[in-house]
Structure formats: structure tokens, C-alpha cells
């Protein structure tokens, strides 16, 4: 299967100013994500889909392939949808790798692609990581069936602890694999009711009755959403073995 990796990146982050260009070990966050995704063995091509010339110039400086997209998109999925259209090439899968995950594991990308290739009738694959705590509103929790079909996504403390205390959560890992038709359908649809309330773009796919499956991955990763995440990422990367492989060449 021919697979395209697209990294959406928006300069005007509301929670952390100029987030993609903030530096960890003298390298912008979005470039960390790109360098790590480039280490995937299953991606045939990789681009950063950015909304600002400042990001594009940084991409050019580091030799990262990029596509300049509109500033009007409401989320990253719409941004990669435009990027995919601009490429005018056919792929079997399009993998959305969020640009604010500077500690993303390349093997996680490969596992998602492998899983989707074995579940070709599924529109979207969304991986999860186990957590024993509710991590707050900046982390998306995934509710799933026994057959790993995604039934809901929420920033809330779900499932609600009415009869029994819950000590196991499945948090959304920011790698999302789309079939071309599912990405097209998503981007041609307007924002939906639940999507607007929770601020979670993939709720649109659920409301459109698209088939989403999840797989559980081992390890850890997190998005840099707010300042404390940025401080945490700077600390974690000091002991990260993957970053050493590309930072030594800079």
C-alpha cells in the first residue's frame, strides 16, 4: 500500500503562542515531529501542511517538504485535506501526524499503517495509549467497544463513575490514518453538533457514521498544548533515545 504522511501545523495557536516554532534542543517542535516521522519505515512520502510562511521558511531551512495551506481551516484534518488535494497524487492511506507531538514514536506510525492495511474496510484508524488517570481537558479520551470500534471521544472524565470507580482510560494518540474517501467526506462536510461542543474534530466522523477503529499501543507520547507540556517535553527529550539519532546530524 502506498502511504502518505501529512503533518498539520498552525502558527496561531490559542493556548501556546507560535507553538510550532518553539524550540526544544535548538530545534522547532514541528521539525522534531517531521524528523521522527521521517524515521517511519511505512511512509512513502511526508509533508508538513502549514498555514504561515514563517513555518514554511523553517521547513525549507531544515530541508523538510512542506505545503502552504489556507489559514481558514478549523482543524488539522481539513488542513491535510487541502494538502492532499494540492499534491494531486494517489495514495491508499493518508496518515495525519499532529505537528505538536515532538516525542512521537516512528514505530507507532508503522503499527497504525499495518493495522489499517489489515482493516481495509475501516474509514479511520485512531490509536490509543493506556492511562491510569484522567489527564484533564487537553487530553482526548476514547470510548470503544470490545471489538475496538470507537463509539465516542471526549475531553471529559468518561465513562462517568456512577457505580464504580474508573482507573483505566484510553487516551487518543495523535496519529490518524484515513482512507482517501474518508478524508474527502470529512473535509466536504460542515462542523457537526458534538464537534463544536467538545472541540474534537473526529466527532464529526462519528456523527457522519464513519467507521473508526482503534488499536492499543505500548509506550508514551503527548501533545504540546500548553506551557506545562512544553516544559515537560524539554525535560523528556533529554533522555529520549530517538531524538539522539537525528539531533546528532544537525
Overall helicity: 25-40%
> How many DSSP helices?
9
Overall pLDDT: 93
Instruction: Assign an overall shape.
Output: globular
Any idea what the CATH superfamily is called?
Answer: Spore Coat Polysaccharide Biosynthesis Protein SpsA, Chain A
Distance between the termini: 32 Å
Which structural class do you get from the secondary structure elements?
alpha/beta
The largest beta-sheet arranges its strands as: 5-4-1-6-12-7-13
Q: In the CATH scheme, what's the topology name? A: Spore Coat Polysaccharide Biosynthesis Protein SpsA, Chain A
Description:
This protein is α/β, with parallel strands linked by helices. The protein has one domain: Spore Coat Polysaccharide Biosynthesis Protein SpsA, Chain A. The chain has 9 helices and 14 strands. The protein has helices spanning 29-37, 53-62, 76-87, 106-118, 180-187, 193-198, 203-207, 227-236, 241-247; strands at residues 3-9, 23-24, 27-28, 45-50, 66-68, 93-97, 124-125, 128-131, 141-144, 150-154, 169-172, 175-178, 212-213, 216-217. The strands form 4 sheets. The chain has a 7-stranded mixed β-sheet with strand order 5-4-1-6-12-7-13, with helices on both faces. It has a 3-stranded mixed β-sheet with strand order 11-8-14, with no helix packed on it. A hairpin with a 2-residue loop joins β2 and β3 (27-28). The longest helix is centred in the middle third of the chain and has 13 residues, at 106-118. The radius of gyration is 17 Å and the shape is globular. The two termini are 32 Å apart.
Amino acid at each position: 500500500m502506498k502511504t502518505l504522511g501529512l503533518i498539520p501545523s498552525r502558527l496561531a495557536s490559542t493556548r501556546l503562542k507560535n507553538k510550532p516554532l518553539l524550540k526544544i534542543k535548538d530545534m522547532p517542535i514541528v521539525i522534531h515531529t517531521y524528523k521522527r516521522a521521517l524515521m517511519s519505515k511505512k511512509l512513502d512520502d511526508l509533508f508538513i501542511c502549514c498555514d504561515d510562511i514563517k513555518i514554511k521558511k523553517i521547513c525549507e531551512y531544515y530541508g523538510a517538504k512542506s505545503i502552504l495551506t489556507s489559514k481558514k481551516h478549523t482543524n488539522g484534518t481539513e488542513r491535510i485535506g487541502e494538502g492532499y488535494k494540492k499534491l494531486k497524487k494517489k495514495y491508499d492511506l493518508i496518515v495525519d501526524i499532529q505537528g505538536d507531538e515532538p516525542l512521537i514514536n516512528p514505530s507507532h506510525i508503522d503499527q497504525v499503517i499495518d493495522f489499517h492495511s489489515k482493516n481495509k474496510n475501516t474509514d479511520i484508524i485512531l490509536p490509543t495509549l493506556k492511562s491510569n488517570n484522567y489527564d484533564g481537558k487537553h487530553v482526548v479520551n476514547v470510548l470503544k467497544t470490545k471489538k475496538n470500534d470507537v463509539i465516542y471521544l471526549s475531553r471529559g472524565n468518561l465513562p462517568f463513575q456512577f457505580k464504580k470507580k474508573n482507573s483505566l482510560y484510553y487516551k487518543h494518540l495523535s496519529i490518524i490514518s484515513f482512507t482517501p474517501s474518508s478524508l474527502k467526506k470529512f473535509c466536504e462536510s460542515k462542523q457537526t453538533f458534538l464537534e463544536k461542543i467538545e472541540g474534537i474534530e473526529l466527532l464529526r466522523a462519528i456523527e457522519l457514521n464513519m467507521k473508526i477503529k482503534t488499536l492499543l499501543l505500548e509506550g508514551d507520547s503527548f501533545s504540546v498544548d500548553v506551557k506545562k507540556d512544553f516544559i515537560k517535553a524539554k525535560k523528556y527529550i533529554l533522555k529520549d533515545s530517538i531524538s539522539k539519532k537525528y539531533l546528532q546530524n544537525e
